[in-house]
Design brief:
278 residues; alpha/beta; 434 Repressor (Amino-terminal Domain); Endonuclease, Chain A; 2 domains; 12 helices; 6 strands; 50% helix; globular
Length: 278
């Protein structure tokens, strides 16, 4: 049977359906095979996959049981809640799925600490700002913090991924949540830098025009050594698998790492900021 082409970038619901079809086919299951495992009809599965039927919470939990995703960062239950509440940028849900199984992460951020390096209190303070501005509900904020904690847990594996993080200096200087929260967050960065599978650098302000990246860029190397890129605008997340556009980001990231101070210099700088001497 010919199946319609799915465009996961059309909407969060379309991304949900496309991912469901991709995972199902990856297991070699037909729609009726998955339907039997979930106690749904094959017609219902088809409707969710092509975006004509909205996925419910019960359906999403059944999908998670069928694929063994219950309680993980890539659970369909999370995706359902994101669709229902609009709590995350489009494109981000699929990024999280790839992040949970990547063998290498390369992160660059401006203004805020990257999610995998955030403390719960720092993340909660950021979300509280969204709530105060009316950009999110308290429930949405709580869901995003919990998702972040689950993302971090997914990176704590028997063979953890290599994580490279380059932060613009604004990340360690922008006060979030008050002095105590910020001090604990900076301490968390120093702890992160001490781990055997991590690398931390700060790109100082005086890099000026030599800094090759100017907004959030995340690069994930998957088990097959393919690289996925993720960038964001104010309202949209973009997951990119095309080598023609991802490779320039990889090249720019390597240039950034070359230009930025070493990890030892970075840790010394963070310690000075903690002490109020810089």
């Amino acid at each position: 049977m010919n199946q319609n082409e799915l465009n996961p970038d059309r909407s969060p619901q379309a991304a949900y359906g496309a991912r469901l079809r991709r995972l199902r086919k990856g297991r070699g299951w037909r729609q009726k095979d998955l339907a039997q495992r979930m106690d749904y009809s094959a017609v219902h599965i088809s409707g969710v996959e092509n975006g004509s039927k909205f996925p419910t919470l019960r359906f999403s939990k059944a999908v998670d049981v069928a694929f063994g995703l219950t309680g993980t960062a890539g659970a369909f239950e999370h995706e359902y809640r994101e669709i229902k509440h609009g709590s995350l940028l489009e494109g981000f849900s699929e990024y999280v799925t790839h992040e949970a199984r990547a063998v290498e992460l390369r992160l660059f951020e401006v203004g805020v600490i990257p999610g995998p390096l955030q403390t719960r209190e720092y993340a909660a303070a950021i979300e509280a700002g969204y709530v105060q501005r009316g950009a999110a509900t308290a429930d949405q904020a709580d869901e995003r913090v919990e998702l972040l904690m689950q993302r971090q847990s997914a990176l704590e594996r028997p063979q953890p991924p290599l994580v490279f993080a380059v932060l613009d200096e604004s990340c360690i200087r922008r006060p979030i949540g008050g002095p105590a929260v910020m001090d604990a967050q900076l301490a968390r960065l120093i702890e992160f830098a001490s781990q055997p599978n991590t690398s931390l650098q700060v790109a100082p302000f005086n890099m000026g025009e030599r800094r090759p990246l100017n907004r959030l860029v995340h690069l994930l190397t998957l088990a097959d050594r393919s690289v996925v890129g993720y960038v964001e605008s104010q309202t949209q997340g973009y997951l990119d698998r095309e080598s023609s556009s991802v490779l320039p980001l990889v090249r720019a990231y390597h240039q950034l790492q070359t230009e930025a101070p070493s990890q030892a210099e970075t840790v010394a700088m963070i310690e000075q900021v903690r002490k109020g001497k810089l």
